[in-house]
Amino acid sequence: xxxxxxxxxxxxxxxxxxxxxxxxxxxxxxxxxxxxxxxxxxxxxxxxxxxxxxxxxxxxxxxxxxxxxxxxxxxxxxxxxxxxxxxxxxxxxxxxxxxxxxxxxxxxxxxxxxxxxxxxxxxxxxxxxxxxxxxxxxxxxxxxxxxxxxxxxxxxxxxxxxxxxxxxxxxxxxxxxxxxxxxxxxxxxxxxxxxxxxxxxxxxxxxxxxxxxxxxxxxxxxxxxxxxxxxxxxxxxxxxxxxxxxxxxxxxxxxxxxxxxxxxxxxxxxxxxxxxxxxxxxxxxxxxxxxxxxxxxxxxxxxxxxxxxxxxxxxxxxxxxxxxxx
Length: 326
Known about the structure:
The protein is an alpha/beta fold and 326 residues long. It contains eleven helices and nine strands. The N and C termini lie far apart (76 Å).
């Protein structure tokens, strides 16, 4: 009799546990940041909101924008994190009004152009020429000091850059060149650069991986990733070309029609007002707001930034990508 009661009690407790888990509201956050940043976001959201089932899933900026554009309010995604602002402009009709939700004192020029009610700036991603000094020494080469240096025949097969068609990082290098030199000169430059490229990588972090593996000597890559690897002992060096450090902005938003879903606005508030600060302080430290702290060692100061006029114009981006033949 006692055994039967004990078994019944255990079954009741298990049923209650799983019923409670199943009743939790699931909130889907689609984040385009690196996995270690997404992992930190997932950990903090799980700790902050144990009463919700918050799922952080990775998707590249282009794929997540295409998904939301195609599915609209019917998408399972509730919140977008780190989506390139050019794509934000493309899908702005699918974004909820978030007026007044941000308490971050953004620097001038770093808020969405004419769309402050639809998304908040998540980060400023900036790039540079990053070199592996050991591989340069192995080939008896000097470090390049400009984009033009990358055309020298001695760099054949030793350079990599992200593909502008799949990577926001690759696109901001491309867009900066167009701003500086014009379209025709840029395409001529890329034609000359192509023989020296080991590959166009699919993601922005691709050149860093190749640099770590010793497969290339020079990568056009994200500055914060290069500094992080240097702090971990990689023999890298950061070179800012005379045109300046190219960059793009990303944003964070709620999908229209999902703002009334239980827990979405709570989670969104935590992401844009709390985790955003943590992410900038420890992961992606390009300054976007007044009083921003940076706890990353050896991060460059007084970075010369490039002319990125039009970086948020998705129509211009689509046209420029249409004439990119690689």
